[in-house]
Amino acid sequence: MIFPFADASVTCRSMWWLFVQAWAGEPVQTEFLAGSYGRVQASTDLAGGGGAPVNVVSHPPRLELDPYLELDLGWQLTLPDKARFRVMVTPAVSGPLFHYDGNWGDVFTLRNLYVEADQFAPTPLTVWAGSRMYRGDDLYLLDFWPMDNLNTIGGGARWTPPKSEVSLHVGMNRLSDREWQYQEVVVPTSDGVSGEKVVFLDRQRVVGSLRLGREFSVGETTLRARLYGEFHHLPAGERLKDDAYEELGVEMLPSDRGSVIGAQFSAWGFLPQSATHLWVRRATGLAAYGDLTVPTDGLALDLRSAKAQTWTIATSTNLEFGPAGVMFGGYVAYQQDADGQALDFDDRWEVIALARPSVYIGEHVALSAEVSHQHVRPNGLNPRSEAFDQPDITKISFLPGLQTAKGGFARPRIQAIYTVNFVDAEARRFFSEQDVRAQRPVQHYLGIGAEWWINSQRTATP
């Protein structure tokens, strides 16, 4: 949504605005951009407790997600020569709400904080710098980005000639968890009593990405192919090892790296509001753990991640037929850490598939259902049961709702959710014996909630 500023007196304008106007010699068009994504839900397990997610795969159905809010705020300046500069700020809040747990302090962060410029050259080039979510297309039913999903601070460029795309970026991070990339230590001071903190370890991970895309038209249908790659690099460093079981000393941390290569094939336009996607992705080394994960578990003896890898094949489809529609989705993935152990519980196959049919009554009532099945096959014994467990969970959900229009993606939406989970014995052994999810083969989830997106600016492409 775009809200042009109304004419106002000079006293209502900031000094920078006066400077820009004077420098340009002509009026500068300024627009305010606003959007939001959010969800909130109350639930019960029908046994006196809150509704608990019952899953064994890494990316389960999105029906049981915690409350979350993003506010997309932007300011766009269009100069007399048509060049545009856009400032985007996206504060986000997650976690249990104050109304539920009574704690005034939900998790707050900034998901986007960047400036983007385009139309400043005779070629369709966009450049940006700052901090942002840098994403492609998602598998909505699982709240999962199968190919490109980075959180980066850096900069990039996107060139978009007709029916084509070239996007590249370079960013960095320095994760503070577990003293893997950053460590502060206390050193003595001259007075011999107090100490001061100094940075002992400081190594930034550099992440680069490149995406190439091309569209083709076949009648009313648009086909698109994308190739994608990432490169991760972490320099060597030293950290002070202060372990209760070992002597104080300096530990060498070697340099490390990782990569991603992926492809995506998409089609849309064959039916109104319908689209389908297929992703294939392979990640190795650091990239197999993700850009915001500290890979301190499952490393090789030399503390490198080179042997880690993941393979993912994922698909997502939405079909609309006027008074009815259906969504499909799922993935098959193989995960292997870097420790080189052949029989390792952390190395595993994961499979999940789901379908969500809907019938629309009038313009605003949607009667939906969702059926999903998830299966995990580890390469080693379950440490809880010391058995070769291969868990299976089947979910059947009913989702009556009110929404703005017909369609599987029409939002805002208010809905009730009832899910019955069929959890086999091997899946129950994936949870602690004291966990209620380990105690019942049939488990229930009843909730009421809402989800919305309004003019969201969350992705790397419009």
Under CATH at level 1, the class stands as: Mainly Beta
Beta strand %: over 45%
Q: Which architecture does the CATH hierarchy give at level 2?
A: Beta Barrel
Helix-strand topology string: EHEEEHEEEEEEEEEEEEHEEEEEEHE
CATH level-four homologous superfamily name:
Porin, LamB type
Q: What is the number of beta strands?
A: 23
Structural class by secondary-structure content: mainly beta
The total domain count is 1
Largest sheet: 18 strands, antiparallel, barrel
> Number of helical runs?
4
Which SSEs are present, and which pair or pack?
Layout: E1 2-4, H1 15-24, E2 29-44, E3 68-78, E4 84-94, H2 98-101, E5 107-118, E6 125-135, E7 149-159, E8 164-173, E9 182-188, E10 195-202, E11 205-218, E12 221-234, E13 237-241, E14 249-253, E15 256-268, E16 275-285, H3 286-289, E17 309-320, E18 324-336, E19 348-361, E20 365-378, E21 392-403, E22 413-423, H4 425-428, E23 442-454
Antiparallel strand pairs: 1-2, 2-3, 2-23, 3-4, 4-5, 5-6, 6-7, 7-8, 8-11, 9-10, 11-12, 12-15, 13-14, 15-16, 16-17, 17-18, 18-19, 19-20, 20-21, 21-22, 22-23
What does this structure look like?
The chain has 462 residues and is mostly beta strands. It has one domain: Porin, LamB type (Maltoporin, Chain A, Beta Barrel). 5% of the residues lie in helices and 54% in strands. It has an 18-stranded antiparallel β-barrel. A two-stranded antiparallel ribbon has the order 9-10. A two-stranded antiparallel ribbon has the order 13-14. A hairpin with a 6-residue loop joins strand 5 and strand 6 (125-135). The longest helix has 10 residues, at 15-24. It is globular and about 75 Å long. The two termini are 13 Å apart. Mean pLDDT is 90; it is low at 1-15 and 458-462.
